[in-house]
């Protein structure tokens, strides 16, 4: 099949364009993957070498889809195209050229996640040491600074990435890199700034691709955008994205990156895809009404319904509380499967908090419906799982300083940072590792006075390592992650999934870390998928259920922000809701609750108006009120359940 067979309209223009740069504004479900695939097919058919084509995106899910689309071309050379995440490309570039080794940086990634705005697990020791040894703080502010460092200090689209812009940032960066060097670690987000710095200083090492294609460009921060410019400087650049699906502001990926692209890139050739091939026509109408609120007087239609698509079923329902919502939605899913023939894998449940998702998942499982949750940190969010993973790390390498730092500070509100500072100073003065030093100090406590708490911790650590080291791999998994123990159940599932392909503890550890650092969400599944709204981007399902659509959960906007930043935060939350709504092909359910226990709300990290009593009222999110005049009336969960879940017009 020729590259242009059956192509018409915008898709043909995108595939055929020879201008550079090419910018494609493509709304959700508009067929951008199809157009990109045909563009790659044209390049290959015209004789472009596969090695001279780079196709990248930000998320692993999007990269997997991109790779599969290209390989499905069945054109000679399509397997040899450089395709994947931008981070994986950068890591390969740095590794091939020994950049990190020469600069004294280790490639061991810091395994962490963000909860309540704070980096957790292996980054906890880093935050404790920051608080003790510097004037930076509190932990949430340090986390923000680390994210800015990963964006090469370009917090705004107008800033040039590469260097600290203030003396405070410079001091912060010096301490951070010093800590990472000492602990033989690297932040996952560092690879892009490092690659950019390397290519700027060494232009002869630039791969010099003839064609660079970037999907989901709106997800890239300023440093990542700059890297694309450097990689594609000698050839052609094609970017695809959607300003209305920009939802990574927390890592400094700003919607202006794609909306103002033509300003910084003269002669940009623009194309757009507006016809939504995925969503029902009624959902497209509602989504348009919602997202138009982000564009003020510019009321041009963002999405166009596809004439051949179904009208779709939409329900907006409110339950009494979270328990009623979890059980009610489990009843809905049961009804859809048993009475309407919907397969479990065709159902996507999106929640604003993972604990809400867990409750719905468990309610489904109790009804005999297979459901799985997908939250990046869930496998290692508990202290039990973190301990198991850290111990497994030391089994593989006793000299792993990150794992040892975590275990030495475990259980302390300060991570015993004062004592650890003494340990680190001794190690650096004597060119010894923390493990070597602690072994010596355990034998002679006078060697390093003032670290009594660390010694107590280390005695337990070394005994546990010696005990575990004598077991078989499966026995080690059972010991660290016992069956039936809730805190390690997610980590155990990961371990058992990779165990058959692991002959050694080291292979087991590496496989687990790969799964945790870059979790994949299956596009095709045989079970109900439960996840956050953010994680759903790029997915499609026959049925999409968005839960707990309450003002207390979405939008969440910090009232202490300056007015401009509050507006930007609200707009991003609106884009997030828009992304969630546009996952479905047939049925959309928007669910809310009317009240919540104050103690539970605090546990879920939301803010409620002050007041007394056990419960607080929680009004429906303002976004439902922004869906326009065709929005179905909201019904109570009890009424919906009593009438076997009807869908309004």
Describe this protein's structure:
- By secondary structure, this protein is of the alpha/beta class.
- It has four domains: about 170 residues, Rossmann fold (3-Layer(aba) Sandwich), CATH 3.40.50; about 80 residues, no CATH class; about 220 residues, 3-Layer(aba) Sandwich (Rossmann fold); about 140 residues, PCRA, domain 4.
- Helices cover about 45% and strands about 15% of the residues.
- The protein has 26 helices and 19 strands.
- The strands form five sheets. A seven-stranded parallel beta sheet has the order 13-14-12-15-16-11-19. Strands 3-2-6-7-1-8 form a six-stranded parallel beta sheet, sandwiched between helices. A two-stranded antiparallel sheet has the order 4-5.
- The longest helix is centred in the C-terminal third of the chain and has 19 residues.
- The mean pLDDT is about 90.
Q: Which CATH top level class of the largest domain fits?
A: Alpha Beta
Fraction of residues in β-strands: 5-15%
Q: Tell me the number of helical segments per DSSP (H or I, 4 or more residues long).
A: 26
Structural category: alpha/beta
Cα-atom radius of gyration: 26 Å
What is the percent of helical residues?
Answer: 40-55%
For the largest beta-sheet, the strand count, sense and barrel status come to: 7 strands, parallel
- Low-confidence runs: none
How many structural domains does the protein architecture include? 4
CATH fold name of the largest domain, please?
Rossmann fold
Name the CATH superfamily assignment of the largest domain: P-loop containing nucleotide triphosphate hydrolases
Distance between the termini: 43 Å
Strand order of the largest sheet: 13-14-12-15-16-11-19
Q: What CATH architecture of the largest domain would you give?
A: 3-Layer(aba) Sandwich
Number of strands: 19
Which descriptor suits the 3D outline?
globular
């Amino acid at each position: 099949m020729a590259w242009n067979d059956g192509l018409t309209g915008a898709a043909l223009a995108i595939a055929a364009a020879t201008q550079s740069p090419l910018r494609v504004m493509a709304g959700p479900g508009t067929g951008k993957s199809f157009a990109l695939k045909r563009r790659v097919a044209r390049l290959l058919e015209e004789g472009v070498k596969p090695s001279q084509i780079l196709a990248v995106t930000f998320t692993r899910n999007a990269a997997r889809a991109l790779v599969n689309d290209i390989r499905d071309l069945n054109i000679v050379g399509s397997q040899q195209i450089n395709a994947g995440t931008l981070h994986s490309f950068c890591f390969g570039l740095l590794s091939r050229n020994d950049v990190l080794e020469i600069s004294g940086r280790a490639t061991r990634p810091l395994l962490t996640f963000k909860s309540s705005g704070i980096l957790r697990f292996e980054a906890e020791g880093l935050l404790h040491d920051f608080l003790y040894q510097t004037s930076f703080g509190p932990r949430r502010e340090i986390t923000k600074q680390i994210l800015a460092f990963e964006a090469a200090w370009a917090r705004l689209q107008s800033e040039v990435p590469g260097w600290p812009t203030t003396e405070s940032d410079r001091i912060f960066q010096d301490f951070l890199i010093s800590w990472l060097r000492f602990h033989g670690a690297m932040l996952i987000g560092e690879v892009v700034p490092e690659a950019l710095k390397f290519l700027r200083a060494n232009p002869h090492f630039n791969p010099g691709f003839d064609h660079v294609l970037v999907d989901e460009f709106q997800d890239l921060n300023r440093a990542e955008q700059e890297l694309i410019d450097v990689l594609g400087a000698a050839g052609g650049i094609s970017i695809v994205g959607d300003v209305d699906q920009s939802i990574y502001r927390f890592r400094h990926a700003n919607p202006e990156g794609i909306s103002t692209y033509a300003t910084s890139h003269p002669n940009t050739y623009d194309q757009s895809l507006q016809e939504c091939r995925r969503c029902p026509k009624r959902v497209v109408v509602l989504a348009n009404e919602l997202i138009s609120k982000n564009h003020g007087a510019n009321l041009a239609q963002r999405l166009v319904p596809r004439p051949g698509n179904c009208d779709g079923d939409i329900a907006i329902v409110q339950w009494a509380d979270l328990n009623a919502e979890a059980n009610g939605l489990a009843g809905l899913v049961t009804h859809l499967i048993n009475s309407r023939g919907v397969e479990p894998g065709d159902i996507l449940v999106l929640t604003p908090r993972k604990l809400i998702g867990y409750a719905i998942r468990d309610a489904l499982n109790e009804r005999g419906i297979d459901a799985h949750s997908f939250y990046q940190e869930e496998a290692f969010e508990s202290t039990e799982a973190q301990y198991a993973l850290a111990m497994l790390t030391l089994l593989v390498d006793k000299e792993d300083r990150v794992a040892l730092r975590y275990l030495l500070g475990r259980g302390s509100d300060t991570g015993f940072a004062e004592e650890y500072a003494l340990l680190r100073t001794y190690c650096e003065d004597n060119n010894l590792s923390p493990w070597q030093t602690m072994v010596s100090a355990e034998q002679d406590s006078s060697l390093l006075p003032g670290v009594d708490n660390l010694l107590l911790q280390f005695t337990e650590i070394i005994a546990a390592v010696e005990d575990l080291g004598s077991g078989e791999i499966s026995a080690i998994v059972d010991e660290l992650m016992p069956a039936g123990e809730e805190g390690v159940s997610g980590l155990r599932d990961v371990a058992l999934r990779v165990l058959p392909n692991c002959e050694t503890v080291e292979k087991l550890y590496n496989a687990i870390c790969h799964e945790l650092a870059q979790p994949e969400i299956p596009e095709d599944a045989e079970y109900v998928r439960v996840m956050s709204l953010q994680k759903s981007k790029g997915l499609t399902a026959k049925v999409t259920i968005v839960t707990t659509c309450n003002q207390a959960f979405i939008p969440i906007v910090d009232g202490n922000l300056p007015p401009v930043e509050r507006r930007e935060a609200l707009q991003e939350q609106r884009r997030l809701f828009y992304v969630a709504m546009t996952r479905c092909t047939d049925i959309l359910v928007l669910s809310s609750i009317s009240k919540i226990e104050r103690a539970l709300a605090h546990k879920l990290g939301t803010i409620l108006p002050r007041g007394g009593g056990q419960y607080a009222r929680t009004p429906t999110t303002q976004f439902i009120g922004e869906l326009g005049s065709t929005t179905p009336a909201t019904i109570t969960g009890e009424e919906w359940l009593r009438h076997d879940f009807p869908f309004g017009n």
